[in-house]
Amino acid sequence: MCLSLEKKFRLMTKLFQVFFLLFLFAPFNFFAQTTDIADALKEHVRLLASPEMEGRGLGTAGIELAREYIIDEFEAAGLEPIGESFLHPFQIRVGLAWVPAYNIVGKIQGNNLDLRDEVIVIGAHYDHMGYVIRAGEKVIYHGADDNASGTATLIELAKYFSANRDQIGRTIVFAAFDAEESGLHGARRFVGDSIVNPADIKLMFSLDMVGMLEEYGGLDMKGIGALDGGEEIAARIAGEKDIRIKARGHQIERRTDTWPFGSVGIPAIHVFTGLTSPYHQPEDTYDLLDYDGMSSVKKYMAKLVTEYSNLPQLQPSSSFVAAARVVDGQVVELRRPFFNYGIISHTGSGHHKYRDEFFDANAVFNFGIGLFAQFHLSDKFTLQPEVLFDLNGSKWVEDNFRRQSLTAPLNIQYNLFSEGTEARVFVLGGPYFRYNFGGKQGGISIDYDDEFSETEWGYNIGFGLEISRFHFGFTTRRALTDIYQNESASGEIRDASAYFTFGLKF
Question: Do the Cβ atoms of 95 and 155 come closer than 8 Å?
Fold first, then answer.
């Protein structure tokens, strides 16, 4: 059919007007959508970090208010409870008391019949540190970034996926964890109580402190390398969303709710914008957060989870499997990495033992600090070399004898008990070498040229406890060589010391 020139002109004019309006209002609509999300996130954080919530401390009236708010938001989002309600109750022991705690759990069923039995968990802890009384005043730890920011993002993701159910293949479970600040208890009980069968969980995200994107300069996705192909997809979508990914890799973060999942072989990613906010301080308030940045994180996670939910397979990466124990082709728990290192201190006392006399010298304060490494040779044995700057000595009749030394213990640790990779109790023993390079006998410099030995050999024995990154122990050290180059008038004199040790793994 032919159109007249006049009709063609009118049609082209209308089309031009339509395209002009689309061009004019599309950026506005996008900006309005972004602003709406940022405003919603801000309102969630404002309420969760308000004085009425009293810092959302474990077992307090404030955390009950937060819990009711999250349940209302989950219901409004259209989530389905797992079981009879959204609440997963448990108890934890604090001192002599058992304190009730509650995870809040809902789900959206996947849309792909072949994938819907597999689960992606998105979690965020909603508890914080509560409040303290100082000089008669209530000081509230508001916990805006830690972790009202993650809880707010969790709520908005629940609303997004509920409105876009047709886009997700796998089932998505949304979990607001309680009691994270007191030891990841909520996430541990979620996994341990099989609220969702751990074998069905293919991937987990922990939104923990996501409120400082611009100031931090990017987004950490630690653990994304534990998922086969995870880093590549995360990087591609980050490019599309103009987000810089900082920390990544296959190692699971131990200090947030990722660890109970990762420790049983589930790839678990810590979504994090750093410690740039006033971490664990009363000043962590809602007005400091970057809500446009939180909106960007929410949109990034929505796109990322949507894509992961529709992949034909979600499986652990080879690097993650290499660090795990595998049974029947399935990762069942993480092994300790072969190599760790950190800083260690030795604090105690030392004295000289007179082997040919009936007495020993009195003790003086001893101290050492330095670095250690750990080589986990098997489930039972760990080799731990150390290099210490060491102040050691003894009380003498005239004055104190004080040496400055470099001491290198080399201990084998034998595990008496271990709980996965999180805790172990061990005994230890091994040799040490000491190089003495300074010190005073009374007010006079120690003579290592003609009188006192510059080197010393001996042995260590002791025991220790390791919990996560922290090491506590007790060690005794006995010299097998004399402090003198030649035997003194009092016979052989050897160093002896005992130390409490504290270490921190990097």
Answer: no
On whether the CB atoms of residues 194 and 109 are closer than 8 A, the answer is no
pTM for the full model? 0.74
Rounded Cα gap, residues 297 and 377, in angstroms: 41
Range of the domain at 50: 19-334
- Domains in the chain: how many in total? 2
Q: Which of 210, 49, 187 is nearest to 125 (CA)?
A: 187
CA–CA separation, 336 and 419 (whole Å) = 11
285 located within any domain: yes
Integer angstrom CA distances of residue 405 from 117, 342, 390, 438, 450: 62, 20, 5, 7, 18
As beta bridge partners, residue 266 has none
**Tokens representing 331?**
């990762």
Q: CA 24 to CA 10: how far, in whole Å? A: 21
Please tell me the distance from the alpha carbon of residue 49 to that of residue 43, in angstroms, as a whole number.
10
Sign of CA dihedral 304, 179, 421, 276: positive
Length, in residues, of the chain: 506
Whether 329 and 351 map to the same domain: the answer is no
pLDDT digits (tens, 9 = 90+) for 236-295: 999 999 999 999 999 899 889 999 999 889 999 999 999 999 999 999 999 999 999 999
> In this structure, is residue 47 part of a structural domain?
yes
